[in-house]
Amino acid sequence: MGESLQKFEVTNKDIRKDKALKLAAWSLPPVLGLVPSAVFFVLMFIFGVTPPAAAMFLFLSIASLIGGTVLGLGASAGTLIYRSRWLTGMREKIAVDGIKASEVDWFKNELKGEEKRALKEIRSKNLLLADAYEETLASRLTATRIIKSTRHELLLAKRRKNKLKYLKSDKLEDFKSEIEKDIANLSKIRNEADEMRIESESRLHMIEAASRRGTELAGNELALKKLSARSEQLPLALEAAKMEDELRKEYVEELEKEFEEDEKELKMLED
């Protein structure tokens, strides 16, 4: 349980790996296509003293250009797929304890088009406002991910609650009560996350307007700190709810096994 709630920090190694994968994806097609082709083309001038030899080197140069480019495109596609999956895993780890302003760049694909444009514009005008905008973006991203996650968790919890109707156990009512508490807890987290999302979006518009007017965000520091604190607390509360839900899920599976064993015994007795 302690490991699940442990904070995750992006390291320089992670940053270097991301840059290396991105560079490899873009450089593989030209490198694998042009380098062998250029080598054979140079060899044609060195060793192509006769027309047949020159033709052979020219053919090898063209063939290596085409073949290397095709191979490079395939390798590039594989690298992009791997990078996409790795980034998805990184985002999940980062989001566990709430997304911070310094981690917003890892979630660029989750930003809206107008948010990307506004962030770029504000960064070019006012670094202080840019910091505030990034902080609020982090809160908005955290809230959106929590809403999506709680929606999924609520669906699973309700399904497990419905499955209990077909089970027979002395502790069935107690377990139903526990699942209802989980549902209420998840609903509360979702509502708080939705409030944080609305508050964050309003704050984003306010910062963008302040940037266009060339004014400072006087008096908004406390509100930004509040958003930041909530973005850290809600993910931890969600993780705790998830773990409780997983424990109850295991208990439901045990009850189902017991129920299946009882049915088998009854069938054997009837036979």
Task: Describe the 3D structure.
The chain is an all-alpha fold and 271 residues long. It has two domains: 9-95; 100-271, no CATH class. It has helices spanning 12-47, 51-95, 113-125, 127-163, 172-213, 221-270. The chain is flat. The model is unreliable at 1-5 (pLDDT under 50).
Summary keywords:
single chain, mainly alpha, 2 domains, 271 residues
Alpha-carbon distance between the two ends: 47 Å
Number of helical regions: 6
The topology string of helices and strands comes to HHHHHH
Rg of Cα set: 29 Å
Number of strands: 0
Give the topology, please.
Blueprint: H1 12-47, H2 51-95, H3 113-125, H4 127-163, H5 172-213, H6 221-270
Helix pairs in contact: 1-2, 3-4, 3-5, 4-5, 4-6, 5-6
Please outline what is shown here:
By secondary structure, the protein is an all-alpha fold. It has six helices and no strands.
